[in-house]
Design a protein that fits this description.
single chain, alpha+beta, Immunoglobulin-like, six-stranded mixed β-sheet, five-stranded mixed β-sheet, 3 helices, 25% strand
């Protein structure tokens, strides 16, 4: 065997060894899942796609998709047979793309990609209904009208309370007012019926001082 042949064999052996080490190291590394994008905010009726990317793209794998109401809540497996939900494969990963069509408000939630019991970080999807400007303006006007009506009612209650307090104060002043003294000598009134003789007797005794009394 020539020196050249030996050299070539050693080179091939070394290359094969390095390749085997690289494959072994890649196989022993922990699987990592990433998702793109991480957030969607769309209106109803739209279409979105979520990508699941494995750190071991050179190895065949199968992705499964789960949904949860929030990040920290329990996940449920998504049935791909639904009319508005589809999956597509990418590279060596089967079902790597989740497609949601004709989005509705009940599609809102967090979607997770899972490969070999390893879950991705999740993609949040928020779905909102289109805003009707006319309805918004009408509701705003109704709300403003209710606020004004409440203010008027409050002002009327305050005015009624103040008027009642003023009325009570005037009544109290009338109660404590001193009575008029119109007839000071009312108690000395003499009955005219049969009282003429008595009046005459009083007039007799009411003589000025120094005058002689009739019995003297």
């Amino acid at each position: 065997m020539s020196l050249l042949t030996v050299t070539v064999c050693w080179l091939l052996t070394g290359y094969c060894g390095l390749t085997l080490l690289h494959l072994t190291d890649a196989a022993t590394q922990a699987l990592q899942i990433t998702q793109k994008p991480r957030f969607y905010g769309v209106m109803t009726g739209k279409r979105v796609g979520i990508y699941c990317i494995s750190s071991k793209r050179h190895l065949p794998s199968v992705a499964r998709w789960h949904k949860a109401s929030k990040f920290d809540e329990s996940k449920s497996l998504i049935q791909h047979s639904m009319n508005r939900i589809f999956v597509r494969s990418r590279n060596l990963t089967k079902n790597a793309i989740l497609i949601l069509t004709e989005l509705q408000t009940e599609d809102q939630g967090v979607y997770f990609c899972e490969i070999n019991d390893v879950f991705g970080p999740g993609t949040e999807v928020q779905v909102a209904k289109p805003v009707n400007l006319a309805n918004v303006l009408y509701r705003s006007q109704v709300k403003d009208g209710l606020i004004i009506l409440q203010a008027l009612l409050l002002a009327a209650l305050i005015a009624a309370f103040g008027f009642r307090q003023k009325t009570l104060s005037v009544k109290e002043d009338c109660i404590y007012e001193e009575p008029e003294m119109d007839h000071i000598y009312e108690g000395l009134a003499i009955d005219t019926c049969g009282g003429g003789d008595l009046y005459e007797e009083i007039s007799v005794y009411a003589q000025p001082e120094g005058a002689e009394a009739p019995w003297e």
